[in-house]
Amino acid sequence: MKNKPSCHTFCDYLATESGLLKISANDEAITAIAFVEQQDEPYGSTPLLQQAKQQLTDYFEQKRKTFDLPLAPAGTEFQRNVWRELRAIPYGVTCSYADIAKRLNNPNAVRAVGSANGKNPISIIVPCHRVIGTNGTLTGYAGGLQRKAFLLLLENPLFSAREPK
């Protein structure tokens, strides 16, 4: 994952079964993917954005389990390390914030991992939806818990999690 700013930014949109995705990129990499309610700015697609749309379409059609796109999420070194660990979570598998903290050799950083997870700018490709509570409950997701549950069930139809109280 790169963390280099670009002077050009572009965005495009993809309608999915779970909602509208806004995909943003600079000249070299995807910088953000987020669920939005409506198109909030004009789009200007590029070959990279078209590639991202196709890979995401394949994911939602269950034809793709991994992504092959250059990424450049803006964040601190710690956040980027967390996001790198999120990308290592296999398709259809979940883990907890504590699991990620342990992988970072910092088991006391559970809250910091949760914060970094919540600030992940590249939904789905950096699969923050695969992180659930240690007790098996669905935890926060910027796209909403319904979308998180949808994505987890898309990847693993046998997935079950308790709703938070």
UniProtKB/TrEMBL annotation:
Q: What is its EC number?
A: 2.1.1.63
Where do the Methylated-DNA-[protein]-cysteine S-methyltransferase DNA binding domain residues begin and end?
77-156
Q: Where is the Methylguanine DNA methyltransferase ribonuclease-like domain?
A: 12-73
Q: Which GO terms describe its biological process?
A: DNA alkylation repair; methylation
An MF annotation (GO) of this entry: methylated-DNA-[protein]-cysteine S-methyltransferase activity
| CDD domains in alphabetical order | ATase
Location, primary (coarse class) = cytoplasm
Localized where? Cytoplasm
Q: Which GO terms describe its cellular component?
A: cytoplasm
Catalysed conversion reaction? a 4-O-methyl-thymidine in DNA + L-cysteinyl-[protein] = a thymidine in DNA + S-methyl-L-cysteinyl-[protein]; a 6-O-methyl-2'-deoxyguanosine in DNA + L-cysteinyl-[protein] = S-methyl-L-cysteinyl-[protein] + a 2'-deoxyguanosine in DNA
| InterPro entries xref list | MethylDNA_cys_MeTrfase_AS, MethylDNA_cys_MeTrfase_DNA-bd, MethylDNA_cys_MeTrfase_DNAb, MethylG_MeTrfase_N, MGMT, MGMT_N_sf, WH-like_DNA-bd_sf
Name the Gene3D superfamilies on file: Methylated DNA-protein cysteine methyltransferase domain, Winged helix-like DNA-binding domain superfamily/Winged helix DNA-binding domain
Q: What keywords appear on the UniProt entry?
A: Cytoplasm, DNA damage, DNA repair, Methyltransferase, Transferase
Which residues of this protein are catalytic? Answer: 128 (nucleophile)
Additional free-text comment from the UniProt record: This enzyme catalyzes only one turnover and therefore is not strictly catalytic. According to one definition, an enzyme is a biocatalyst that acts repeatedly and over many reaction cycles.
As for what it does, the entry says:
Involved in the cellular defense against the biological effects of O6-methylguanine (O6-MeG) and O4-methylthymine (O4-MeT) in DNA. Repairs the methylated nucleobase in DNA by stoichiometrically transferring the methyl group to a cysteine residue in the enzyme. This is a suicide reaction: the enzyme is irreversibly inactivated.
Tell me its family. Answer: Belongs to the MGMT family.
Q: What is this protein called?
A: Methylated-DNA--protein-cysteine methyltransferase
